[in-house]
Amino acid sequence: CISKYWSVLSTLLESSSTAIIPDSIKGVICAGLLHSTTNQEDELVIAWTLRYTLDAVMADLLNENRTSTFSWLPNNDGALFYADKCFGITSITNDPSFFTFDVNNITMPLDDFNEIPVGPMSENPPKRPYYRGYY
To answer: pLDDT digit string (tens) for 13-26?
Structure first.
């Protein structure tokens, strides 16, 4: 799951059209990728971090309420802060220097340190039928 989620998010991040993927969405993606690097010891947490990021992206693109909210996953103006901080790469990494423009000046997303709900990927199924092929 991690490689699929990472690949989709990186592809969206590299979209050249802001009409398709607005900067605020790119900021959400960047924050999610950055946060995934803070949980490098637990692959299940990384997978769910990326899944929640992808779910937030889909909700934001469809102008719907997010089903889950986390302090590290910004929206609106908070997401714009991260919009130009990251670029997509095809390989998964736990080192933000591989996908950020200036790792020495990057501010990691605020984390309230609440646990990320995890479980088998078959739990918490997506609400939209067209998601089924992605999980």
So the answer is: 998 877 789 999 99
